[in-house]
């Protein structure tokens, strides 16, 4: 599943269409696409792993899910996977194997933009409040909670926890305040590192533990385990990442 930084890159690639009018709309997404024809794409907004194409009378929400993709100016996949195609006077955008929904413009005002890890509106203070309100949550689940860290995915989760030396099954309430703040700061820091590495096509070269087998610090074999409520893959070092319990922290 594409994480927040990849969605920002998609936004950048789609940006040339802003200001243009839709001339054709098609695809098998289950909403009426006819009203989009003639409307101008006013802006593109991202919220974590979601993209909003904002038009004059409505917005279209795109979520690439696990296997979604997009292309620009050229349809590259079979029609059966095409959820939405929007053609403009100068080119077009195509979205495949993803979730596409039409939403009212008023819905955008209800989004907690301060939870977007890569947004200028990001609020570390609000993230800290949400963490404190969920003391029994595992940190691996907390990082993947889109209401707290919108845009964080499994890669960012694993790399951030290794950076701050916290075992993924640690309980949020067990982390000292300093470590909670470190978690919040590194979630954002790593997301922007991810973005730059993705732009340079060197992201995988910088992975320290994600899909790796040996700890880069001590050389010990990494643990590969499904952790948390979501049972997502975690890669961690038992020696260099501490497991915090409620009793140990504040």
UniProtKB/TrEMBL annotation:
Keywords: DNA damage, DNA repair, DNA-binding, Endonuclease, Glycosidase, Hydrolase, Lyase, Multifunctional enzyme, Nuclease. GO terms for molecular function: damaged DNA binding; DNA-(apurinic or apyrimidinic site) endonuclease activity; lyase activity; oxidized purine nucleobase lesion DNA N-glycosylase activity; zinc ion binding. SMART domains: Fapy_DNA_glyco, H2TH. Residues 2-91 form the Formamidopyrimidine-DNA glycosylase catalytic domain. The keyword Mitochondrion does not apply. InterPro entries: FPG_cat, FPG_N, H2TH_FPG, Ribosomal_uS13-like_H2TH. Pfam families: Fapy_DNA_glyco, H2TH. It catalyses: Hydrolysis of DNA containing ring-opened 7-methylguanine residues, releasing 2,6-diamino-4-hydroxy-5-(N-methyl)formamidopyrimidine. PROSITE patterns: FPG_CAT. One of its GO terms (biological process) is base-excision repair. Coiled coil: none annotated. Gene3D superfamilies: 1.10.8.50, MutM-like, N-terminal. CDD domains: BaFpgNei_N_2 (cd08974). It comes from the Bacteria. Belongs to the FPG family. This is Endonuclease. It comes from Chryseobacterium pennipullorum. The lineage of its organism: Bacteria, Pseudomonadati, Bacteroidota, Flavobacteriia, Flavobacteriales.
């Amino acid at each position: 599943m594409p994480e927040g930084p990849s969605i920002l890159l998609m936004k950048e690639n789609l940006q040339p269409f802003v200001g243009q009018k839709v001339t054709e709309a098609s695809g098998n997404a289950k909403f009426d696409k006819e009203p989009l024809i003639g409307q101008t794409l006013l802006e593109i907004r991202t919220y974590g792993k979601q993209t909003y194409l904002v038009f004059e009378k409505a917005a279209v929400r795109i979520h690439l899910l696990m296997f979604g993709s997009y292309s620009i100016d050229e349809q590259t996949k079979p029609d059966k996977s095409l959820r939405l195609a929007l053609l403009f006077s100068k080119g077009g955008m195509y979205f495949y194997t993803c979730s596409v929904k039409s939403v009212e413009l008023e819905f955008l005002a209800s989004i907690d933009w301060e939870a977007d890890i890569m947004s200028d509106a990001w609020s570390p203070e609000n993230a800290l409040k949400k963490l404190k309100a969920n003391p029994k949550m595992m940190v691996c689940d907390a990082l993947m909670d889109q209401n707290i860290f919108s845009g964080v995915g499994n890669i960012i989760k694993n790399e951030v926890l290794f950076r701050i030396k916290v075992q993924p099954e640690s309980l949020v309430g067990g982390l000292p305040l300093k470590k909670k703040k470190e978690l919040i700061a590194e979630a954002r820091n790593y997301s922007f590192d991810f973005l730059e590495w993705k732009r340079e096509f060197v992201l995988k070269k910088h992975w320290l533990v994600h899909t790796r087998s040996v700890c880069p610090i001590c050389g010990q074999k990494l643990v590969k385990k499904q952790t948390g409520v979501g049972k997502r893959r975690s890669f961690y070092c038992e020696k260099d990442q501490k497991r915090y319990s409620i009793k140990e922290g504040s």
